[in-house]
Write a structure and sequence with these properties.
This protein is α+β, with helices and mostly antiparallel strands and about 400 residues long. The protein is built from ten helices and ten strands.
């Protein structure tokens, strides 16, 4: 494999604190994550100890209030942390994004008492979260979910199955959307369910083409009883909470996609500089140079797009359209760039001796999770052209 190390991304960071934070993340990525990424992904090993390290380093709650163990960082900075982690290993970057998504409902819609009771452990106490919205028969049509929560005195009893749950079976808490009322979006409520709750179990992890180190599994709730204190928001507010969380979560996926694409570009550039054919480096050939130029341009455009959306969020302005655009563009970019990286490496790119084949397999799922890219186009079109005629 090439020995040439890639140059770090030149980030325009607003403060010394942000620069120190990125430096810390790069150190962790370089020494604790990247060296074991290929071996552990091939073995399907989930790096729980890495998330423990991230928690101890103050990185699991970056965009949330310092009062409860968060980092008080704007999304503009948090997303760049995600990008750095995803470039080292997508399982880790995506895992942090999912944990942030799972923490959102309570952080944004919980009561002061709920914040005090739960957020410190969720944001800085070593816990790892999962987000449970999808079901076997309700993916893109999430409002048709069937998992039920029935009131029983001061408790709720949850019954149903959730599907495609990242961290399923290893999470310490699940943010679960369940039906408490009428059909449709107005009958859904959000709950914070402990990972060790009686009646909660996980199926065997899905066998996936990529992200093998990140467990994805169905979660079964068989009469799981939780107190009303763990209901998040008002009854019937759960679907609105879920959609709000996904707007922010899509920015996380966009940042992870750019990190993955950047890693693929770095590998392609290093290989092209070292690989010689016809007496000179293949990086000298115009056809390949143009490929690298296009890859770099797409990455920079994606980075600018997700950062622009993040700045809207940080300013308290609407950003749902821009989040959908960023998720769409950045994940499509990751798929194109990783595919081109395999082409740059030729036959070697198709082998497990180089990481680009893994990057290409991993990129595909980013076009699917947290709203397929077809759904993103629907969201964008509604903002541009108005709602569909009925």
């Amino acid at each position: 494999m090439p020995d040439r190390a890639p140059q770090p991304v030149d980030r325009q960071l607003p403060t010394d604190e942000a620069r120190d934070l990125i430096s810390l993340v790069r150190d962790i990525a370089r020494h604790e994550i990247a060296p074991k990424a290929a071996e552990e992904e091939d073995a399907g090993r989930f790096p729980r100890e890495v998330f423990t390290l991230l928690s101890r380093s103050g990185l699991l709650g970056l965009p949330y209030d310092a009062e409860y163990g968060g980092g008080d960082q704007p999304y503009e900075i948090y997303l760049q942390v995600l990008e750095e982690l995803a470039a080292a290993r997508l399982t880790v970057g995506l895992g942090l994004s999912v944990h942030t998504l799972a923490s959102y409902a309570l952080a944004a819609h919980g009561t002061k008492q709920q914040h005090a009771d739960h957020l410190p452990a969720m944001l800085g106490g070593g816990l790892l979260g999962a987000y449970a919205l999808s079901e076997p028969a309700s993916g893109s049509d999430a409002a048709s979910l069937r998992t039920k929560a029935v009131r029983d005195g001061d408790d709720w009893v949850l019954t149903g199955t959730k599907a495609w749950i990242t961290h399923g079976g290893v999470a310490d808490f699940y943010t679960v959307m369940a039906r408490t009322g009428v059909e449709g979006p107005r009958g859904i409520t959000a709950f914070l369910v402990p990972g060790d709750a009686e009646g909660l179990s996980a199926a065997a992890p899905e066998k996936k083409m990529g992200l093998k180190g990140s467990p994805t599994a169905q979660i079964h709730l068989d009469g799981v009883r939780i107190p009303d204190e763990r209901r998040i928001g008002e009854e019937g507010q759960g679907f609105a909470i879920a959609l709000s969380a996904l707007d922010s979560g899509r920015l996380g996926i966009a940042a992870c996609a750019i990190g993955l694409a950047q890693a693929a570009l770095d590998e392609a550039v290093a290989y092209a500089a070292d690989r010689r054919q016809f007496g000179r480096p293949i990086a000298d050939f115009q056809g390949l140079r143009f490929m690298l130029a296009d890859m770099a341009t797409q990455i920079e455009a994606g980075r600018a797009l997700y950062l622009a959306a993040a700045r809207l969020r940080d300013a308290g302005r609407p950003f749902a359209r821009e989040a959908a655009m960023a998720k769409l563009f950045c994940t499509d970019t990751a798929m194109r760039v990783t595919t081109d990286a395999v082409q740059v490496l030729g036959g070697y790119g198709y082998t497990a001796d180089f990481p680009v084949e893994r990057y290409m397999r991993e990129a595909k799922v980013l076009q699917i999770v947290e709203g397929t890219n077809q759904i993103q186009r629907m969201v964008i079109a509604r903002h541009v052209a108005g709602p569909e005629s009925r």
